[in-house]
Protein 1
Amino acid sequence: MGRSYQAWIEQLATFCAALFGGAIVTAEITIGALAIAMAVGLVMAVVSSSRIRSLRFFVIMYVEVFRSVPALTQLFIIYFGLAQIGIRLQSLPAAIVGLGLAGGAILTEVFRAGFQALHHGQREAALAVGMTPIMAVRYIILPQAWRIVLPPLGRCLGNRGTRDHVLCAATCHQDVRDAIDLFNDGALLPGDEHPARPSGSAPGTQGAVLAMINFFEIYVAHWHEWWPDLQAAAANTLALTGYSYLIAIVFGLIVALAKLSRSRLLSGVATTYVELMRGVPTLVILFLLYFGLVPLGVTFNAFNAGAIGLGIHAAANVAEIFRGGIEAIHKGQREAALAVGMTPNQCFRSIILPQAVGIMMPPLLNMLVILLKDTSICSLISTPEIMLRTKEIASIYFRPMHLYVLAGGMYFVMAWPLSLAARRLGKRFRRGRRD
């Protein structure tokens, strides 16, 4: 008995030491990514107000692309893809850069909204008294905008710090990187009849053009081999998104009603659930469902575990969307409905819910985009979606840059229209409320 207890203590000490080391790395990634995200977001927000169209277009494309492509795909492009062209980053710097650039796209919109919330006359007055545009931003705009952006900034940073850093564990696999080393040394790739990289390259613009042509020639040569698998994976991704979204809507509505309940017990349980799910990474939930329940005799296949895990995790945010939409309706309307003889259920179904739907639709569409991007995380439990198929093909053809860029493009094509629809619905609703 004493020996078993001592062995258990030693294992616990080893386990805690490993967790402590992981926590230090997590803190390093979070702080480094935060610094990059704030610097990039602030610069991009300032550039977005430039009168030069090309600069504004660059900022718009940066924000749209990075917000529509999963963070995991971006990390794989930086860690595996750049190695194909000779730029090798260790896993820690790659994680910091990847999460920093992804977070910078979000913080760009946060800073931009903060700048636009200030009356433009303040900037004009600063310029009129002789300040340069940079001085006006530094001494007039930024100090006031900082107080506006601080709350959403804190939420964004919490999301970067508690959720996305776990994706960096996926960059620890070295099989593709080792194969890329062979490729960079002139080894033949599957399907190639000549060395993958020529010994010399044309200088200047001509060399850049030739490199771009060679890059797209790879797609032409292998498209018929890659596309059937990726097309099937895209169908699985959409199905996974649909099932998880349905679970999130149903469960989120139940949690929202429980949180709005007069019962302290129901409200407390719902609040605890929301706070717990919003503070735990999605990957942890997926691992608990797929691996953690096996010793208890409960097993899910990868697809079901992914759908359930994404759904119950997203339900916390969906519950807050429902709660906010319902509470946005003036309580006098409910009191009037009850006064004319409606039951609480009739009041909710006929009076509150139809009006709340208009408020909730834009954030619900944004939630659908988030779920679509989060399906990439399910590749880490072997769900047959886009990222898993892309990794498998990349391990065969050793073309990570081509394949992960292609995967990112597929996510962008699916997510960007939904983001545009959410923004247009939001603008229409705000315009209707003003009218």
Protein 2
Amino acid sequence: MKVNKSDKSLFDEEIVLSIMEDLKESQVEIEELNKELKRKAEASETKYKAIYDSSADAIMVLEPPTWKFTSGNLATIKMFKVKDEKEFVALGPWDVSPEKQPDGKLSSEEAKKMITKAMKEGSIFFEWTHKRINDGEFPATVLLSKMKLNGKEVLQAVVRDITIRKEAEQKIKDANKSLLEVDALKGKFLTVTSHELKTPLTPAKIQAQMLLEGDLGELNEKQHKSFDIILRNINRLDGLISDILEISKLQESGFKLTFRKTNIKKCVDSVMISLVPVAKKKGVILSYVGKGVPSVPLDKERIEGVLTNLVGNAIKFTDAGSIKVIVEKKNNDVLVRVVDTGVGISKENVKKLFKPFYQVEPMYTRKHGGTGLGLSIAAAIIKRHGGKLGIKSTLRKGSEFYFTLPIGKLGKKVVKKEVIKDG
């Protein structure tokens, strides 16, 4: 089929018209898109300006190559106490900083380092000491962020005055320092007072014992009973003073434990020998459960003291039933449990149990002796061994006091002292 010249010319014209129509439509769409983008940019700019103007933080822009300020919001003007933005933009970061920062470095050099870092990393946050124009220094946090403005890379700085925070931190530091000083004085007072109280107690105790044993002549029944009460109370007072001395020592940073690799059963046996008769007198069965337990680094005297305290308390608060001392290996520890069928302890009292001088029984109803220091001393000793002392208890059903001792070299981390093998 042949197409003549006039038909071809008409066909080409229609194509051109169609293309032109398409171009017009595209142009309209582009114009609408540009308008939409312009509207969004204006909305974004309005939103940013609203945030910029209303911000409580000082917001300012720095531009290369001089890195002087080119704008600052109202908070900036107020913070640095300049007359207006025009006065502010004549300044650079070093003009609103003291000559040197608290670490002794020149503010001008440090400011340039921070600017270089922010441009390289995109943003940087740091603390800085600023100064107000003719009105002293103040601590601040600074967030420097790289951004594009009119096609140019600039830095936006957000500065927050942290004077109130720093003052609060200083007050806390001062309060902590005062507490430490008071605590140190308290420790010294307890040590000196305890020693002074213990000195006259020793001869009084010896004299009372001699009288009761008849070394100074025979006593009648009333006299014997009276001196027995005196000796019992001397012993109680002696125990209280010993507890106070012990807890004072444990609070001293220089307090050391002597570790020897020992089988815990030796400690349990020593305690059982002295406490089985006491339990038997109350009709309570005291027994040991344990087999194949490895030796651990420990201070034998101190651990025996802990066990005596825990088993002694169990006997005090168990009027019938049994007390078991259970020793077993658990993961990397030796676990020691003292389980009784006594009165138990409420959840409320369990939380306070390890506080110094705290006792479950109110002072006016207490029928058992004690200072309330035993468990806090025991907890401190176990902590020094790298272990943990805890309790599980149900009121009127019984209690389980337990502690852990790390096996092997773990004990060395607590006290830098060579572990000596014992048997």
Protein 3
Amino acid sequence: MLPHSFPHFVQQSVSTSPDGSDLGAAPATLLPLLPYGSALQSACLIARYKRFMADVTLENGQITTLHCPNTGRMTGCAEPGWRVWYSTSANPKRKYPYTWELSETPAGHWIGVNTGRANALVAFALQQGVISELAGYGAWRQEVAYGEEGSRIDLLLTGHQAGEPDCYVEVKSVTLLGDGERPELGAAGVGFFPDAPSARASKHLRELMRIRQSGQRAMILFCVQHSGIRQVRPASHIDADYARWLDQALEAGVELLAYGATLTPDGSALTHSLPIQR
């Protein structure tokens, strides 16, 4: 049993297929969801700017500013006029007490824009036994310093009950959905990583290659926080260097997984594996 716990979770009736799509008449299952810091409220997005801020119109007509916890481009995740959902901090010292958590698209897709939540979703999934490829580990730690390039691993799993090597897991949040029309977005239904050139992401691949060479397990886990994504692919059209490093990492034995999230205003959770195309 993993030592970290999430004692406060909600359960929601959710109907999904193995790839996360809505089955309509299929029987619903009771799904544990990881809650947010507070009950979410909705607003209408005016614009995101300066990376970490977004202006919105609240339901009472007031205009206010949300904190945007996402350093990426957020392509296809932040269109003016969309409905967004935000949590509220009780910390009186925060300049912007509201945090943008979800976007809701006109097509009915849900997007988790808070990239800081990805690690918590993976940890919660480990506790729930969702990620079968990582079953059997007795403990984990977060943000552990490692490597030759000054990195910190998102999750270090240790104490496998069958004596398997420790596993270094680098979590990547995926929200870029291709639409099949714009070349910069890629094929429809496909999620891409990264959404912008990322030297840091390539560095992590090199670090994981060294970990694998030392005899430990090393893994990239794509945490897919977009309900419209049905498969994942490296974004070679955006960052060719990352795609090349990923090929080398896989050849060196680094493992690659993708899991999709069920996203709701009540909470979210990783619920299903997704195929990866190379």
